[in-house]
Amino acid sequence: MIRTTDHGAVRELQLNRPPANALSPDLIAALRHAVESAPQDGARALVISGVPGRFSAGLDILLLLTLDRPAIAAMWRDLYALLRALALSPIPIAAAITGHATAGGTVLPLFCDYRVAAHGEWKLGLNEVQVGLPLPPIIFAGFRRLLGTHQAERLAVGGLLIAPDEAVRIGLVDELVSLDQVVSRALEWSRGLLALPVDAMAATRRSARSDLFELFAASFDMELEQVNTTWWSPEAQTTLRVLVDRLARKKA
Amino acid sequence: MIRTTDHGAVRELQLNRPPANALSPDLIAALRHAVESAPQDGARALVISGVPGRFSAGLDILLLLTLDRPAIAAMWRDLYALLRALALSPIPIAAAITGHATAGGTVLPLFCDYRVAAHGEWKLGLNEVQVGLPLPPIIFAGFRRLLGTHQAERLAVGGLLIAPDEAVRIGLVDELVSLDQVVSRALEWSRGLLALPVDAMAATRRSARSDLFELFAASFDMELEQVNTTWWSPEAQTTLRVLVDRLARKKA
Amino acid sequence: MIRTTDHGAVRELQLNRPPANALSPDLIAALRHAVESAPQDGARALVISGVPGRFSAGLDILLLLTLDRPAIAAMWRDLYALLRALALSPIPIAAAITGHATAGGTVLPLFCDYRVAAHGEWKLGLNEVQVGLPLPPIIFAGFRRLLGTHQAERLAVGGLLIAPDEAVRIGLVDELVSLDQVVSRALEWSRGLLALPVDAMAATRRSARSDLFELFAASFDMELEQVNTTWWSPEAQTTLRVLVDRLARKKA
């Protein structure tokens, strides 16, 4: 589900779970492990990429609707651990957003260091509310960190998806390049950081990301309980099942 | 002074106090009551609008200069209660800024959920300093919440009024439409939120506006005492009276 | 090293230490003294300017590399005191950025009230990381205050220098004018503030800058110890010496 390629000191983790790079419990666990173990393997920076046209469609709703309460609870715990691993990574991480990046597909890049996206007709954004899920507070906090309070409120409450042009204008991504340049540009950005004096870059990075350390210093027990409760709420379950039925009919 | 129209589940509160929609103690009290009672009446969203060319000129200085200390103190207490009602409203509020929105006319939209303004030669902004009044800290906090520290400092300290184009560029308003579309666009935005899964939208909205809850959790006794003291200061009284005389001569 | 000119109530402090307006311990001490004593001398606003083409090149590395530990420690203590004097100044300060403003040359304007820069091929930004110095946390805090967390992280971690056009777009400076207008525009901006009702402007300014007061209320003993430790680190010393050698060869 993850294709690992070492480009010198920069390791690329390519999400590769057809057809939509949706996040299954297995992919979440695998990505968390890959992020956490990269520095021990000698990687000095990471690039997380998708496949052309698709970065990630977010949580694999179709699969998750078949899981029971303990499995859903484990998935959320692991997702939070993945976000923590991204946010507190000792090495820089660039997201190479190679296409659609909806819901969880936008959540992962929020906690990375840099976001390169492809020009094109892709959709980005946190549409959780549209599918009946309140945006978890930690994710809102990461969103607000990039966009400021005003834009984060507007987009999150409306569950809005936006085009790459708007995403770069409001700061959801850092730069746009052509689709075939997204990964190479993310690699180049990473190499740029690695060419800097090592300790000065690392210390400044810790300083600039100290708010993320504070954010993840909290205990998430209560928040996770709330996230699980709303997952099993009638509104969320109904909305998610309607969505899945509609997607199934579309395919048929 | 307020024309109430129910457009389905969205209630429009149109400020209608000729000639300038200036905020009198009565209008402040009436608007507060209208905002607070709307949810009990079954409204699921609010639009606060003005008249064509005039959203609100802010506090009715001409009237306020005739009031004694207890009446001024009551007015400020009520204005803070109105801002609190807007900020903590259980239902979303859009401001339909139909023209000039100076001082208090910009303050009200700060605490709403969304701001649609009309293209045109209108003035928006917090020009309190120009008329001798320090910007009350709670209002500065709402201003900074939308614009960020940098722009909020620049505009508030200078007491600057700006055009709609600049207002949308820096985030003081969310979108610009033609004057005849302002109210309908605000209604449309409200209906868009109401079409979303109810609990998910409400929970995300609470999360995105939790900083406003913290802001208004404070006691404002000391701040109100300060606001009253400066109202009665020689500088404020002199500047306000010069302003009122100039306006009177203009009319004559 | 500082040319003082009183333009009515606005005092201009022109940095004048050829060839690059680099910050020596003496210039830092002199500028701190000039900023702190201006209000007692009757100045009601300050403009800090450079020479045409050069605002300031930041710390005078060539000179600092000749100093011992006590002298370096005294320099950092004085630089922090200068930043504090700028941030907490009882009178407004405009920076007239007349050309290149790198590292310390960008640090000073961060803590001023307003920044006018010249159109042109100048470089601005905090390139400390490029020369082996982690960006001190207080400086990052001032940077983030102007730019927001996202842009501040991107620029500080990469040690990036940017052109005036980008600087004004992201909020590092407030406006761009032609080089021969920079000082006069900064004076005009200052006079604009002084034409406002005095107490209202001052109180609003305190409110808008209260976060700077909180920032500088901290004790900086530990931070200064850290800043000194990294100055003497092998990485910083090596990188700085390579830089100085390269500059020396360039001249020869």
Features:
2-enoyl-CoA Hydratase, Chain A, domain 1; 11 helices; 252 residues; 52% helix; 6-stranded mixed beta sheet; alpha/beta; 4-stranded mixed beta sheet; homotrimer
Q: How much strand of chain A? A: 15-25%
The largest β sheet of chain A comes out as: 6 strands, mixed
Under CATH at level 1, the class of chain A stands as Alpha Beta
- Helix proportion of chain A: 40-55%
How many separate domains of chain A?
1
User: What is the H/E string of chain A?
Assistant: EEHEEHHEEHEEHEHEHHHHH
Radius of gyration of chain A: 17 Å
State mean pLDDT of chain A (0 to 100 scale).
97
Structure description:
3 copies of one chain form a homotrimer. Chain A is α/β, with parallel strands linked by helices and 252 residues long. Chain A has a single domain, classed as 2-enoyl-CoA Hydratase, Chain A, domain 1, CATH 3.90.226. Helices cover 52% and strands 17% of the residues of chain A. In chain A, the strands form 2 sheets. The first copy, chain A, has a 6-stranded mixed β-sheet, with helices on both faces. In chain A, helix 1 (25-37) packs parallel to helix 3 and helix 3 (69-87) packs across helix 10 (221-231). The longest helix of chain A has 22 residues, at 137-158. Chain A is globular and about 55 Å long. The mean pLDDT of chain A is 97. Chains in contact: A-B, A-C, B-C.
